[in-house]
Amino acid sequence: MRQIKLNFVDPNHLNILLQDQVFNSEIYYLTPRLLSSGNAIRLTDPIKEHSSFDTEVVVLTIFARAMKRLIFPKVSIMLYL
User: Fold this and answer.
1) Quick one: three-class SS letters along 7-32?
2) Could you give the number of structural domains in the chain?
3) Which domain CATH number covers 31?
């Protein structure tokens, strides 16, 4: 099982993500734990066959999609996820 810790400069961004049902349904299997600092989250990938790279790609893809959809919806960049 691999763990990833993501730190957010703006804790409001993390709060916005955690309040979204779609986002929560996508990260549920990663057992998200909000850390006491309030601007970081720890995720645990339960799939033992995943390499570190696999876990990072999965987590970053989920977060990138959600951030584009919820936090930066009007930014027009070529982000195809």
Assistant:
1) ECCCHHHHHHHHCCHHHHHHHHHHCC
2) 1
3) 3.30.1370
